[in-house]
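Run log, item B.
One chain of 205 residues. Sequence copied directly from the ordering sheet:
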Amino acid sequence: MARHSLAPNRRSDTRERILESATILFGTRGFDSVSLDQIAAEVGVAKQSLLYWFASKDDLIQAVLVNMAAELTVVVEAAIRSAPDMPLDRLEAVIHAVFRPAVRRPALLGLLRELSRLPTGAAEHLTEILNPLVTRAGTWLRTEMQAGRLRQGDPSLIIALVYATVAGIATEPEALRVVGWSQDVIGLRKLRNELTSFLRAALAP
């Protein structure tokens, strides 16, 4: 009986290990440069076991992207719940939450870079998952501005600014190196802090 009760957990663990390895390999080498055979070898399972969970490479890519979006949603929601009820403090907590996964797992930046290389429509599911979070952020910014707790501005552009900063880290690392920035943990934290300070100064009422 004990063996039967543990089996589902073991199978689920295999799926999670496949997703984790795929995230790292896709993020560091790119979608096109990584095969299912390489991922299976990294996990230590037969390719057939990988195909049990993910019927194709495209299915695995989609699962990795959905997993990334879900992780981001969880950390942002946690930051919102735990932050003080002061808009600038809450904004800082959200910025830190957005950067935290990238600081902990730099391969996520590579995934962000790879998104721009996917065929049109391939990341639609990812967009669908993130849309409620983006909509909520825009509504919150607008409400705080109307209440006079943040300077008036365009919530959509502010969100786009944050996204462009994070996306720029992934897609334009060479351009950032020109100004002396390095794509490592120290560099990510420094950029996060500069972005936070910039937004605090720009949105203070």
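Observations after the first pass:
- The first helix runs from residue 2 to 29.
- Residues 58-203 form a domain with the Tetracycline Repressor; domain 2 fold (CATH 1.10.357.10).
Flagged for discussion on Thursday.
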